Amino acid sequence: MKTILLTYILTFALGFLAMAQDAVEIIAELRFESNSERELWEAGQQDPYLLFRAVQAEKSLSDKKWSNLVAELDQKFEKKGAHINVLRQIFEKSHQQLFKTYQQHSTFNAMLDEGKYDCVSASAALALLLDRYDFDYKVVETDYHVFIVVSIEGKDIILESTLPIGGMITAPSEVVSYLEGYNVGDSVQLKSFSQRLGAPKVDLSDNAIFRKVNLTQLAGLQYYNDAISHFNEQSFEKATSQLTKALKLYNSERIEGLKALAEEQASLLAISN
Hints:
Largest sheet: 5 strands, antiparallel
Radius of gyration: 20 Å
Distance between the termini: 68 Å
Strand content: 5-15%
Number of helices: 11
Shape: globular
Structural class: alpha+beta
Mean pLDDT: 85
Low-confidence stretches: 16-26
Strand order of the largest sheet: 6-5-4-3-7
């Protein structure tokens, strides 16, 4: 019995050391813009909130707005639990206190510091709160947009973060209509690797992506959005750096495709210079 126990302990210890070594190697191959980003990235592997704060973390960071919102919502949750009225409070209070000005490809930090938000940063905030209060939800990634579906009291509710008014869709017929708008077409391929996620898509005829993503993967999409900003500024090395981190968080075809394109453009630029 002692031999079996010792073997189990040794096996567990070796497995833990191997995981730790893998984590060290992953960190070593990544290029961070600041010590703040590195620290938030490392801590964020256990706390997604910190992982969302890692992108563009050069400025001094304040958690005051987030802490105030959580404190207010905690009181609502203590009274009613995971109730639809609490869900409505989450959506409305987030818009009142965090989501001030829609701006495509805004980061989570820009949202907390300046009130600028898009569908990725706002959905991240909503998902973190839904997670905190034990709601049954999923974050959905599409070609051009991210939104949330909450299952409560036997029905689905859409949280469309980019619509302060009417963005909490509860009527069953409207929920069905909304979801049908993002149906993936047969054999449709993603047309652009450099398409930002940020606003609802106007033309709904050629969707290629409709999938559930977790909080870590959503953080990867935030890095992807930031990489596109660098790519469009022809800062291809910075774009590649951000996409390398994005891939560590979310191994998706759109991130892989843009990374290959950024690396190619960086090589061509180096040759021309």
